[in-house]
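Structure tokens please, single chain.
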Amino acid sequence: MFMGYPNWSEIKDSLLKGRNVPMIESDMPTFMGVPHALGPEDLRGVDVVIIGAPYVASWGPYSGVGKEEWIASPRRVRQQSVKYWSGYLQEFDLDVFDHLKVVDLGDADIPPEVIDNPTVSNILAAQRAVEAKVNWALDAGAVPIVLGQNSPCGSYAIAKPVAERTGGNVGVISLDTHWDNELLDRLTMDPRIAGSGSWKAKMYEFHGNMLPGNLVEIGERGMSGGRRENIKKLLDEGAHFYPMWDLRQKGIEWLCGELGNAYNGTEAVYVHFDIDVIGGAGPAPGDLLGTLAEPMGMTDYELLRISYEVGRRGFDALSFICIPPGSPVIYRLIVYVIMYMLAGKVHSNME
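Here you go.
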């Protein structure tokens, strides 16, 4: 099943209700109407930087869904975000924007030719475009939050700058249906590409201060994770694995208590949410994901509970990929994830 998504002219009146917000393009507002940053000079004193990475790794439709639907996600998340008039979270009696300065840096300057021609050179150019904006944010002492769709632009391009500027070890918290630990990128079969099925293996191959012993891997289940030898390699190297089966048996509070394994002995933590982890558990049908959909997915509450707890513990960068296309409520879920994680960050600062 694929749900069509209305265009901006059809939905803006119901979302904005006559309000004006900064616009990046004619159909793309800034995230929740925060200021639009144009470059590094606009990042002074900023706490959080929103960055779009509209990239899809495919020669044709991706997972049975047209590429144009996948790469629209950063735009559509921003569109749905302006439904909310402020950063006030009622359950916490907290307005996030009273405590954190958030700006939107727009989309990375991904070469348009990579969409239809994903060659090695074009993919590496797209990756560098994302790295450039992530580095701007990190240079300013801000946390980059990247709205992506596929690897390397929505994952490795964020992990790499964090690793390169951290003197000590870097922990990773990853929510996913797949381990993405293949030795080679399936699209190009090139060892330089940290692609959709290989970015995690390449992350550990390329960066000596990123160790599997500080990986907290959450959400894989059943037969979907990958090849046994590749999974076993990471587990033998100390990775901490929390499949959905264990989460269902032991509960979300138990899992939140396990997040500390990403922080033990590390100086930075990179957080990565592959939203195919929700499967069909809500709030929208899993079939939106095409062939990526799997049973026993994570619920929206579980995703948000983890997000808040990660925010409380601290994080240096956050990225999203595989945002299910076509569902407004899924795009709003991404907004919730960001805001609940930032609420945790604010609460931590208050302690």
